[in-house]
Amino acid sequence: MKSVFILCLGNEIVADDGFGFAVSRELEGDPLLDNEDVEVEFAARAGYYLIDCLSGRRRALIVDTIRTERDEPGTLRFHEKDAFTSSRHLTSSHQISLPTALRLAEELKVPMPERIDVLTVEALDLETLTEQLTPQVAAAVPRAVELIRKWITEEVCYASHEERKTALEA
């Protein structure tokens, strides 16, 4: 098991929810990953699965799609793991949020990464069944790969919030 983990989440057949899949494909064969202790995985799952994926890692970056309607589609943002709301009503294990999964892992004494970050893209379409990203989100894929490479080499991993914001705007 490699100590640095990039977990790309989503559903590759639901328009912009395929962003994580597209990013994971772009990272395949990246020379940086051959020289580093880094593993990249695409998963169409969440919930309890996050505990198993993250356990035993030193650092983790989760790549996912989000719709806040505060940003333009295709906007990339870094978040710390505690930036998200815990699950309130669970009708399935998929509804377990990252904070809820991490709290459960802590209670079960499962070793979690010392650093967990989330890179999100603002979605436009999360309803259409298609393997095509919208143009705005597709345009964000190369930039996301560039930011992930910087995160891997710790250029932005341990940066302050302002430094990360600057990296996103560059």
Outline the fold blueprint.
Blueprint: E1 4-9, H1 19-27, H2 31-35, E2 38-43, H3 49-54, E3 59-66, E4 76-80, H4 98-107, E5 115-122, H5 135-152, H6 161-169
Parallel strand pairs: 1-2, 1-3, 3-5
Antiparallel strand pairs: 4-5
Helix pairs in contact: 1-5
Q: Rg from C-alpha positions?
A: 15 Å
Which structural category do the helix and sheet elements fall into? alpha/beta
Low-confidence stretches: none
For the largest beta sheet, what order do the strands appear in spatially?
A: 2-1-3-5-4
The counted number of beta strands is 5
What would you call the shape?
Answer: globular
Q: Total domains, how many?
A: 1
Average the pLDDT over all residues and give the rounded result. 87
Helix content class: 25-40%
Which H/E pattern describes the elements? EHHEHEEHEHH
Instruction: Summarize the main sheet.
Output: 5 strands, mixed
Query: From the 3D coordinates, which CATH architecture would you assign?
Result: 3-Layer(aba) Sandwich
CATH fold-level assignment: Rossmann fold
CATH homologous superfamily designation: HybD-like
Measured distance between first and last alpha carbons = 33 Å
CATH class: Alpha Beta
Counting DSSP H or I runs of 4 or more residues, the number of helices is: 6
Q: Assess the beta-strand content as a share of residues.
A: 15-25%
